[in-house]
Amino acid sequence: MGRRGLILATLLLAGCIPSSEPRRAEPSREEPRAARSDPDTRQCLADLSRERVRFEVLPDRNFGGGCSAIGAVQLLDIGTPTANLGAMTCPLAREYARWTRQAVQPAARSWLSSDVVKIESFGTYACRPVNGMAGGKLSEHGRANAVDISAFVLRDGRRITVLEGWNSDDDDVRAFLRAVHQAGCRRFGITLGPEANSLHHNHFHFDMGQGPYCR
Fold first, then answer.
1. Does any domain span residue 13?
2. Could you list the residue range(s) of the whole structural domain that residue 97 is in?
3. Taking the CB of the first residue and of the last residue of the chain, which one, N or C, has fewer CB atoms within 10 A?
């Protein structure tokens, strides 16, 4: 095979090798039924794309017992990694990305003089009643419509937890946590923190259920 033939064969072979780069789902490609038919979901997906959020559209799923993940996405990159994020309804994902970018990072720089390099969560979807009480109303977690945030890791190495920081002796830590909690109240339907009840002593709960309610 001549030199030109060898180059051509190499190029053809390279074109057959799949890329390992994760691909963000485009709204026009193989979307779940809810994403195709619901105008609010379509607008939400467009908002995520416009705001340069990388995400994957997930198939609609019903898990029984009223639990579901309809019109949900998986966030891949919002600029700040978050541990344990699973399926999230698109509106929740959109507001979470905005909260992280427009509230958490500015508050960290203002009060703690450092960027947040990682957020820790207790997860999103969980098929269970409110507060885990048997026979109770279905939690928004059972609709992939809630997220629980427990800690923030700073670039300077500090780890700020809701559990230890909410009533910390450090004024700046307390101010930071209250700032991001209040920012959640302005973005999510329901925001709960340590002052809501003992079950939220170690995390912030954000959901897009009926509200507004902030505690």
1. no
2. 79-214
3. N
